[in-house]
Amino acid sequence: METTATSKGQIVIPSSIRRKLSIKEGTRIRIELDEKAKEIILKPITREYVHSLRGKFQGKGLMKALMAEKKREREL
Predict the structure, then answer these.
(1) What is the pTM of this model?
(2) Residue 12 included in any domain
(3) Inter-residue contact 46 to 26 (CB < 8 Å)
(4) Most buried among 6, 42, 52, 75, by the most CB within 10 A?
């Protein structure tokens, strides 16, 4: 599939793709750039995407690090 960029750099995501990925009005889209492959990667931030991240960082101590950082900020 192809689409054309407007003068403002906007593109249209075809409706068939929007339906498959549950993209609706207001859905946030994460944009990544693969410089080596010269590709733009669009990832919709849907409820399913957020749920897929659950447990990914489990055991990394991120909550303790966040709490320590917040404590330092309050002390300043």
Answers:
(1) 0.56
(2) no
(3) no
(4) 42
